[in-house]
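Posting here for the record, re: DOR.
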Amino acid sequence: MGLLIKNATIVNADKIGEKPQDILCQDGKIIKISPSINAGSHEVVDAKGKKVLPGLIDIHVHLRQPGHEDKETIETGSMAAVKGGFTTIMCMPNTHPVIDNPMSVEYIIREAKRVGLCNVYPMGAITKAQKDEELTDMAELKSAGCMAFSDDGKAVLNSRLFRLAMEYAKMLDVLIIEHCQDPLLTAGGVMNEGAVSTRIGLKGDPGIAETVTVARDIEIAHYLNSKVHLAHMSLKRSCELIRFAKSQGVKVTAEACPHHFALTDEACASFDTSTKVNPPLRGQEDVEAIKKAIADGTIDCIVSDHAPHTKEDKEVGFDDAPFGLIGLETSLGLTIKELVKPGIIDLTKMVDKMSTAPARIVGLKSKGIIKEGFDADLTIIDENKEWTVSQAGFVSRSKNSPFIGWKLRGQVEYTICGGKVVYKV
Ligand code: DOR
Ligand code: ZN
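Prediction output follows.
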């Protein structure tokens, strides 16, 4: 017995299907797509009037396990993922202890399998304990299951180490994801440096902390002819540097987060600590530039940078709160509201940014496209339905969202992973 999706309007990155199709999933794969498939003994999901997308993929998520299970676990993070329409997530290694050894990688894979809701791919650290002193054994970590490596939470400041990491990554055909922020320039800033930080009296983090790292990484990638993926780009200037690098053939890819195109640094004037995030919320010009860069392909994909923190962690003064906000459950709704509805991108481009491109960037060859033979990971949405973000509605263990009370567009109706319904509204 398989799972049969009836009357599916299929949205792939290259086109929206003209006529509804039936999609038959069996043994974890899409085995047949045709205008009418007999239901037989299959479980049936009716997608009439809805859009069926390749399962959404978020390659930048923090799950906090091991070490901070009070903030999030692999189980609660997976629940948040499938509620947000994600069938695949990649989790960052800045846990306690840091994911820098094969045992930790295997632990995450095992626990994610036990939970059994979505695909969870752990990333390995670039440097041991993310101390920026010594490289991890990337070959060993790749064998354990890592496809990508990052010291996210901070940059690899040691340029020589970063160069070596890029060389190993090229040899091993894995991806380096860089958190671009030079802490010597950030110098204790807690929000974007600019007119708002001056007005409200919070210490500013200047944009150059991001752009000098972007420029360095692009230069190293150019020199080595290696790939580099730049995390959570937040600035107009970063987009300009990436656009130029791409025009020169540098193998650079980049991501942006919904909070960086939905909010400006004015949001910090509320002193709501859920607006404290790294890199910080920027100015209006940057927001516009990020949107443009998503539309023109400078920014390849959209990620949430889901960064859960407890109420206790965040219920302190702005200066003392940790950086980060949750995003798995609001990422799709914010993208539809801020980018699709205003016509900045259409649904096919959204599918590219939230499924097809991330699959390609990290090398998930059987994901990101609805096609016979591909994995049966699907997200069924009503892109017009409005819903209101509420604290009680979050299934993530943490609730640190600046979007509580916002009306978003686009309701996830079903999330299907490996041919199994893992979420239903
Ligand atoms: O705001 C952030 N929070 N940015 C990061 O890069 C790390 C993350 C976290 O781990 O909390
Ligand atoms: Zn992050």
